[in-house]
Specification:
With 441 residues, the protein is of the alpha/beta class. Helices cover 37% and strands 23% of the residues. It has two domains: 129 residues, Roll (Urease, subunit C, domain 1); 293 residues, TIM Barrel, CATH 3.20.20.140. Strand 2 and strand 3 form a beta hairpin. The radius of gyration is 21 Å and the shape is globular. The structure holds guanine (GUN) and zinc ion (ZN). The site of guanine has 11 residues, from helix 2.
């Protein structure tokens, strides 16, 4: 046998080198597609990618070749905004954001003071993510440091690239979930020291949203960001009109919602603002100037009745958009379901999402906007070996539909609209197969 941890997958390969644009035909040079390809994985990274016939003569004797002809391999999907601690309150009925937080979310997050519970849900969450082909996510934990320790340690055991952080809240939440201002910052510093940059893990500063943080807490978070520009930041922005009114009342000195974050120095190239449904063009421009990204969470926006995200208005000013499930408000962890909902929201705004744009978003687009594109998001030599093996004929219905398609774009669109966890044949992360779908008939 060839002596290293090395193997080749033979399949159709699809990866993006650049944004494909909004057209039916992707921009020149943006798509890398190989019908009969070889993906050579070695010691956790991609060693080579090419046409199978071209690469095969270079294989050492005994190198394992896994035959996935008929399947389509893409880089692992990325979810830019998700709350692992809300896994078990998905599908909680009938409320919009602020009532939903008080009635379902805060009581649920209280459970994460318990380490065993946090550990069990971390593993359940990661199992579900891998089942749907997601290999990286930016994750909200709860305000309990143990919820972060549990999540990072579960991710590390599986060698996953994950960003996560402890929720910071020092007001307007149940007492057991609120920090005293300095204590929350000290806990955050301890978690950064223990986890940031360890293996494939990164720390994302996590003030929940403006209403649950005092100005002092937001300022202290900005201080941490300035001290270490390698940290990420995640929060919520302009999701719901009731939230907007509340923020205006709490921060009368700020000219708008975004200004609350700007004044504490929280808007930068590693900052993700979830939602941004209710922004004007001027605020979008200010986010774009700083290189921040908006996480578009379409299934959550539909579920909570938050509104219809204006994707093209954001693109018009060069603002980075990422794609996210926002579970537990989101109704599905699957990136395919996120794209399907994004397409539906887009149709209601006369801006339908092409499959090119969607799959670029889930892979290279999200990786770039999160500053992770030197490690993940493409099938290319040197990249970390995180990828998903999709089966475009996974179900009888999908097989019927894709058998009739005349182009890759049509097949991708069918997978985006009709696909689900059954479409994910395998998920690989860190060079290892971490999920295999077992057909249950
Ligand atoms: N805004 C503040 N907290 C949350 C949350 O947990 N979920 C969503 N969707 N919006 C929020
Ligand atoms: Zn959220």
């Amino acid at each position: 046998m060839y002596p290293t941890d090395s193997r080749v997958l033979r399949a159709e390969l699809l990866s993006f080198d650049a944004d494909p644009g909004e057209g039916d035909t992707p921009a020149e040079g943006s798509v890398r597609h190989i019908k009969d390809g070889a993906l050579w994985v070695e010691n956790g990274r991609i060693r080579a990618v090419d046409h199978f016939e071209r690469l095969a003569p270079t294989f050492p004797a005994g190198l394992e070749v896994i035959d996935h002809r008929g399947k389509l391999i893409m880089p692992g999907f990325i979810d830019s905004h998700v709350h692992y601690v809300q896994l078990e309150i998905m599908a909680s009925f009938g409320r919009q954001l602020l009532d939903w937080l008080n009635e379902y979310t805060f009581p649920e997050e209280c459970r994460f003071a318990n380490h065993e519970h946090a550990e069990a849900i971390s593993h359940a969450f990661l199992d579900e993510m891998l089942k749907v082909g997601t290999t990286t996510a930016q994750v909200f934990c709860s305000s309990h440091p143990v919820s972060v320790d549990a999540f990072f340690s579960a991710s590390r055991r599986r060698d996953l690239r994950m960003l996560a952080g402890k929720v910071l809240m020092d007001r307007h939440a149940p007492k057991v979930l609120t920090d005293d201002t300095q204590g929350g910052i000290r806990d955050t510093e301890r978690l950064i020291a223990d986890w940031h940059g360890k293996g494939r893990l990164g720390y994302s500063l996590t003030p929940r949203f403006a209403p649950t943080s005092s100005r002092a807490q937001l300022d202290a978070t900005g201080g941490l960001m300035r001290n270490d520009p390698s940290l990420w930041l995640q929060t919520h922005l302009a999701e719901n009109t009731g939230e907007l009114d509340w923020v205006a009342e709490l921060f009368p000195e700020s000219r708008d919602y975004l200004a609350v974050y700007e004044q504490s120095g929280l808007v930068g190239p590693r900052s993700t603002f979830a939602h941004g449904v209710h922004l004007d063009q001027q605020m979008r421009g200010r986010l774009a100037e700083r290189g921040a990204n908006l996480a578009f969470c379409p299934s959550s926006n539909l579920f909570l009745g938050s509104g219809l995200f204006d994707r093209l208005a954001a693109r018009e000013v060069g603002l980075n958009i990422t794609y996210a499930s926002d579970v537990g408000a989101g109704t599905d962890l699957s990136g395919l379901a996120t794209l399907k909902a994004a397409y539906q929201v887009g149709q209601l705004r006369s801006q339908p999402l092409t499959a090119w744009q969607g799959f670029h978003g889930l892979t290279l687009g999200n990786a770039r906007a999160l500053s992770l594109d030197d490690q993940i998001g493409r099938l290319a030599p040197g990249m970390e070996a995180d990828f998903v093996v999709l089966d475009p004929a996974a179900t009888p219905l999908l097989a019927r539909r894709t058998a009739r398609s005349h182009s890759l774009s049509e097949t991708l669109f069918a997978v985006m609209l009709l696909g689900d966890d059954r479409t994910v044949a395998e998920t690989w992360a860190g060079g290892h197969r971490q999920h295999v779908r077992h057909a249950h008939g």
